[in-house]
Amino acid sequence: MELRNIQRVYLVGIGGIGMSGLARYFHHLGCIVCGYDKTVTDLTNDLHNEGIQICFEDNADCIPMSFHEPCDDTLIIYTPAIPKDSAVLNYFKNKGFELFKRSQVLGLISKSSYTIAVAGTHGKTTTSTMVAHLLKASGNDCSAFLGGISSNYQTNVLYGKNDVMVVEADEYDRSFLTLYPDVAIITSMDADHLDIYGDHAHLTESFKLFASQIKDGGTLVHKKGLPLDTGYTYSASDATADAHAANIRIEDGDFYFDFINADLTIADIRMGIAGTHNVENAVAAIEAVLSLKIPADAIKSALASFRGVKRRFEYIVKTPQHIYIDDYAHHPEELRACISSVKKLYPNKKLTTIFQPHLYTRTRDFADGFAEVLDMVDELIMLDIYPARELPIEGVTSDMLLNRMHLQNKRKLTKQEALDAVKSEQPELLLTVGAGDIDTLVHPLKDILQNG
């Protein structure tokens, strides 16, 4: 596949965060870009407004005529999240088109670039966006494919004038094994996606294989404690790591820290976003960009101006009466990091949390972990499990999680009931967490808290 010859691109599952980034990239290059997705979202509306044609009906009749026959200048990209019985997907298969996974195309695009790839079961979206911002804001520049919408740039794909590329390396479906980076960051290797990997050992094996694909002379940066034998380690607290944070503190609602490695100390770095876990992400990002000779003062300035990623510890309302934070956390360790940071910032406020579990398999596999972490909040509203690509599993429900919890102040509600509860109770500190469609509550909740 010669990407420079491509003139037409069709994306099956165009509304996904990774797929939409590719859609924008090829549209930016001047290609005709179309796609299918099952659901209208803010992101698909944005793509439509940018001039990308999207069909929301799984029907081959919606596919434009220019995609009816295989051709060297036509590229068909699909996401593994699309059901195998999709009419649109099978149309292209039956017509003899060569179909490419999103990850394969990302591998082709980044092949000739100096690539910084960020992997991990959590932390990768914020860290990759942070790396991209450090490069952009310092004047070094880069292109980037991100797994979320950057709050600084209001997009998930960035275009640079050099050959440096930042990519989020997704472990789902072993997608990251299409990448051969110059610099790789691995933020975490906790058990996840066991529907794909079967067990934690196979997930760990895939991460080790990804680490082995770094180009000769390249650099591996990974969180200290991960079962990896090479590379530079980092930590938010462990001074035995090759790079670590020290003197972490909160002043006037902002996180500050010192970055320390064997060659350099950068004191009094102010974070533009909150959370101890984000201090750790920042240590990883700094260590990665130091290979590109970014000056210390540019690093400090960039981190102070970094506004994070949509749905990653995102402040929705911040008034004297109400604090409302929204986060994508959907794994017990992500929830632990998020809830701990909220409680550290607001130790004297009652924390009300609305949580939507994501996937039946993840809920089943980590039920005890979810119950333990959710017990950290003061009041919990649980929504039904968001199934995404899965069918129900007998006995795996939100009630199952609630029954494992010790917290007294907990209940299961529908989304509308949750809105009604917030309207009547007006919580002083509200957190919404989950990776499903809980984000559809964000605007209504914001309106309720701001307008009563």
What does this structure look like?
It comes from Mucilaginibacter pineti. ATP binds at residues 120-126. It is an enzyme of class 6 (ligase). The chain has 452 residues and is of the alpha/beta class. It has 3 domains: 3-101, NAD(P)-binding Rossmann-like Domain (Rossmann fold, 3-Layer(aba) Sandwich); 112-305, Mur-like, catalytic domain (UDP-N-acetylmuramoyl-L-alanine:D-glutamate ligase, 3-Layer(aba) Sandwich), CATH 3.40.1190; 314-451, Protein-Tyrosine Phosphatase, Chain A. Helices cover 33% and strands 22% of the residues. It is built from 15 helices and 21 strands. The chain has helices at 17-28, 42-49, 87-94, 102-110, 124-137, 194-197, 200-212, 276-289, 296-305, 332-345, 360-365, 367-374, 398-404, 415-425, 442-451, and strands at 8-12, 32-36, 53-55, 74-78, 99-101, 114-119, 143-145, 157-158, 164-169, 183-186, 219-223, 232-235, 243-251, 254-261, 265-270, 314-318, 323-327, 351-355, 379-382, 410-412, 429-433. The chain has a 10-stranded mixed sheet with strand order 8-7-9-6-10-11-12-13-14-15, with helices on both faces.
Q: Which CATH class of the largest domain is shown? A: Alpha Beta
* Spatial shape: globular
Q: Which strands sit side by side, in order, in the main sheet?
A: 8-7-9-6-10-11-12-13-14-15
Largest sheet: 10 strands, mixed
CATH fold field value of the largest domain: UDP-N-acetylmuramoyl-L-alanine:D-glutamate ligase
- Based on the coordinates given, report the CATH architecture of the largest domain: 3-Layer(aba) Sandwich
Task: List descriptors.
Protein-Tyrosine Phosphatase, Chain A, 452 residues, 3 domains, UDP-N-acetylmuramoyl-L-alanine:D-glutamate ligase, six-stranded mixed beta sheet, cytoplasm, 33% helix, EC 6.3.2.8, 21 strands, ten-stranded mixed beta sheet, alpha/beta, Rossmann fold
